[in-house]
Amino acid sequence: MGGMADLRETLHIDAPAALVYDLIADLTRMGEWSPECERVSWRGGATEAVKGAQFVGFNRRGTLRWITFGKITAAERGRHLAFDVFVGPMAISHWDYFVVPDSVPDPLPEGGVVTAGCTVAEEWTDRRSATSRAFSERILGDRKGHNKKGMRLTLAALKRSAEGEFHRSARGKAGGSAS
Asked: Which of 50, 88, 97 shows the shortest CA–CA distance to 66?
């Protein structure tokens, strides 16, 4: 993509990287975690996050509502999801999600049981022109500050979902083995 992101937030999640990535890549669930994105719908026949897939984002901030269009630019299962966001033909942002699995100790600790989690990094890059940025800031205020708070809330909600799903799944497997 080139250049550094304008914002980066990270959070450790006690769930496997593959599960966490799958949650992030299911963009139709983004409204469950994001304080601004209400929902996402795939478009153009897309049904999953693969490079080139397009989607529509339905967003809200207070009483203001707007629609954005997105295109997946990277989709490496378990590792990295990225997409560009547009308002009409104008690129306004680029988002990256990096999922980094915890290292598993070698040798394994006594008992051999390790619950490996991962760290998720969410990055936002502002792609608006200076004119667009100035206009937008008059209507929406400080986008960078707002996104920083929103990214923290999104990651915290993602953590709750991922850890909840992982622990429910683990309990189900443990409960299912007894006869």
From this structure: 88
Is residue 36 in some structural domain? yes
- Residue (of 7, 48, 41) closest to 24 by Cα position: 48
Closest residue by Cα to residue 68 from 44, 113, 29, 38: 38
Q: For residue 179, is it within any domain?
A: no
Helix (H), strand (E) at residue 145: helix 143-176
Domain boundaries, position 37: 7-103+114-168
Does residue 71 belong to any structural domain of this protein?
yes
Q: What is the pLDDT of residues 150-171, one digit of tens each?
A: 999 999 999 999 999 998 887 7
Token duo for residue 94: 């680029």
Question: How many domains, the chain?
Answer: 1
User: In the 8-state DSSP scheme, what is residue 29?
Assistant: G
Question: Which pLDDT score, from 0 to 100, does residue 1 have?
Answer: 47
